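Course assignment 3, question 2. Fill in each field.
Student: A.L.
Task: Predict the tertiary structure for the chain below.
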Amino acid sequence: MRKFKNIVNIALLSLLLTVFSGCGYNSLVELDEKVNQAWAQVENQYQRRADLIPNLVKTVQGYADFEKGVLTEVTELRSRVGQIKLSTDDLSDEEKFKQFQDAQDKLSGALSRLLVVAENYPQLKANENFLTLQSQLEGTENRISVERKKFNEAVQDYNTTIRRFPILITAKIFGFREKQYFKSAPGTDKAPDVNFEFDKKKENK
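Answer field:
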């Protein structure tokens, strides 16, 4: 009798695996994991940028007449960004995702303004530490753009799949919800201009 039950259980398990595979469950799991992996790379690049900012601010603070308002803005926005945590479970939450993106985009804008102001300080632009930081920041901003694009592509594949029939039935049953995209905002859809080529006209004044 026990042997018969074991055979029945194995048969039922095989049937369930076949059903789940045929209804797209495995595909949904794979696509969901790709989105999570893409998100991890986005977070890595944002964290890398956050780690660069304290050294950047410290270097710029060495110039007493540097505009304090710009430094304060960057410092405060970095702190605000650090307080917003977005887990993979939150990627389907429109409000939380928008809050995260808005904070990151505002920090991008503040960094861009700081670098523009730095154009007025020839000695700062000749500072080796500052030049290294600006190069690292430029590379990080570019990588952020790349990883956000990859994330959006992964989300597009995922969102498209969960809307297809009959997979949409499986998605609803197992709680696969639509995920949010990064959206371009005025002035934040491009990496900040970190070109520190010296302005000869300013130097001669």
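Instructor remarks: Helices lie at 2-22, 25-61, 68-83, 94-117, 122-125, 128-162, 167-173, 200-204. Residues 187-205 have pLDDT under 50 and may be disordered.
Grade: pending
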